[in-house]
Amino acid sequence: MNSKKIAVVGTGYVGLVTGVALSEIGHNVTCVDLDAGKVARMQQGISPIYEPGLDELMTKNSASGNLHFTTNHNEAFVGADAIYIAVGTPEKEDGTADLRFINAVAEDIARNLTSYAVVVTKSTVPVGTNDHIKQLIAKHTDIPFDVVSNPEFLREGSAVYDTLHGDRIVIGADSEKAAEVIEEINEPFDIPVFKTDVRSAEMIKYASNAFLATKISFINEIANLCERLDANVEDVAAGMGQDKRIGDRFLNAGIGYGGSCFPKDTSALVQIAGNVEHEFTLLKAVIEVNNHQQRLLLDKAREQLGSFKGKTIAMLGLAFKPNTDDMREAASIVLAEQLVLAGANVVAYDPIATENAKKVLPEAVNYAESPEQALKGADAAFLVTEWDDIKALTPQQYKELLREPLVFDGRNCYDLNVMRDHHIEYYSVGRPVVAPEKELV
Ligand code: UDX
C-alpha cells in the first residue's frame, strides 16, 4: 500500500477515531488539537474519550511511529497529502449548525498549505458547506487543493469497530483526482466505496441520521399504541423486522434517542429545509415524538406514586446509551431535572458516566457506587440506560433492596414473566404492565 501523510484536525470522537484508524491501516497520521493539555495526554497514549479498543490502537500506532499528536497546525499540514477536518459543529440555539470551528480550520489550512492537498470534511456540515470551505481557502492561497466530503457513520461505544468494518465509505468530490486520493487512502479498510458529488455526500449524512431517528420515533409511537391496545411492541418489531425491506435493526422502543448526533442533526436538517422554504413536517414530528418519549417514565411513575415529593428514586444508567461516558442529550438529564423539581430525592448510578453526569445533572442528585447501593431503600427504580451491570441485576435484588418492588424500565431490560413470577410491579415501554399484587385484588 502507498502510505500517505495525513493531518487530522480535531480530536473529538470522529477525529481521534479516524486518525487512529488511518494510522492502523499504515498511514502516517498527525492529529492536531488546540488543547495543549489534551495533546500531551494523547502523546502518552491516554485517550480523552471512553471508547472500547481505542487506547490499545493509540498506543500501538504511536509506538510504531504512524501516529503523532501536536498543537502545531503547520507541522501537521506541511507535505500532507490529505487534511481531514473533524472539528465540532455544535447546535446553535436556533437549531442551525455552528460553523465557527470549521471556518477557523479552513483559514488555517489556507495559511499553512505548501503543496497540493485534498481537504477532507469528516464533520457533519449543512449542504453547501464544502463549497463555502473551498471558497474560503481559495481566498487565502494560490496553491492548488481540492475539497472532498467524506461523512462519518461511526457510533459511540463501537466507534473503532464501525470505522474498521463500516457498511460503506461515502466520497463526495467534484474532482476525479481528489476522489481517487481518498479512495486510495481508504482501500486497506476493504469497505465498499460510494462516490458521488459533494452536496449529495453532505446530504447522505443528514438523511441517514434523520432516517434512523425516524425509525426510532416510529417504533416508539407504535409502542405507545401497543400499551393502549394490549399488544407487545417487542413482538411487533420482531415481526416487522423479518420483512427485509424494513430490517430488524433500530426498532428497539424505549425512552427515545439521545447523543451527540441524532438530536443535533435532525434539528439542523429541519433548519436546512427551512432555509430553502421547505417545511420538513415528518422530521418535526420525529423530534416532537422523541421529546415526549424522554418523559414517559415520569408520567408512568407519577400515576403510581401519586406525587414525587419526598420519594427516593434510584436512577440506573445516566449515559445516553451503554458503552459510552457521553451525557449529551441523555434522557437522564430531563428525568433528573423533573424529578428534583417535583421534590424527589434522586440516587443515580452509572458505571462510567458519573463524572460527566455531575457537570450536567442538578446539584441535588446523589450518586451511588453500585446499582445495589442506588436501589437500597428507594421507593422506585428508573432504568434509563441498559448497561450490562444494570441488566445483570436480578428481580430478587429489586425485591430485597427497594422499599416496594416498583420498577419503571425505559429500555425493556426484563422478561415480563420473570418479573411477574417475582411479584415485581413492572412498567416498561410498549409492553403490558406487570402488577401481580394488583391483579390479585
Ligand atoms: C448515531 C448513528 O448510529 C451513527 O451512524 C452516526 O454517525 C452518529 O449517530 P450514536 O449517536 O453513537 O450514533 O448512537 P446509536 O447507537 O446510533 O444510538 C443513538 C440513540 O438512539 C441512543 O440514545 C440509543 O439508545 C437510541 N436507540 C437506538 C433507540 O432508542 N432504539 C434503537 O433501536 C436504536
Structural class comes to alpha/beta
Helix content: 40-55%
- How far apart are the termini? 73 Å
Distinct bound molecules: uridine-5'-diphosphate-xylopyranose
Instruction: Give the assembly state of these chains.
Output: single chain
Number of strands: 14
Give the overall average pLDDT: 95
What is the 3D form?
elongated
Largest sheet: 8 strands, mixed
Spatial strand sequence of the major β-sheet = 3-2-1-4-5-6-7-8
How much strand?
5-15%
Radius of gyration: 24 Å
Low-confidence parts: none
Tally of alpha and pi helices: 20
Report on this structure.
- The protein is built from 20 helices and 14 strands.
- An eight-stranded mixed β-sheet has the order 3-2-1-4-5-6-7-8, sandwiched between helices. Strands 11-10-9-12-13-14 form a six-stranded parallel β-sheet.
- Helix 5 links the parallel strand 4 (82-85) and strand 5 (117-121).
- The mean pLDDT is 95.
- The N and C termini lie far apart (73 Å).
- Helix 1 packs across helix 3 (54-63), helix 5 runs parallel beside helix 6 (129-140) and helix 11 (262-275) runs antiparallel to helix 12 (281-293).
- 45% of the residues lie in helices and 14% in strands.
- It is of the alpha/beta class.
- Uridine-5'-diphosphate-xylopyranose binds at residues 152-156, 209, 212, 216, 250-252, 254, 257-259, 261-262, 320-321.
Overview features:
441 residues, alpha/beta, 6-stranded parallel sheet, elongated, 20 helices, 8-stranded mixed sheet, binds uridine-5'-diphosphate-xylopyranose
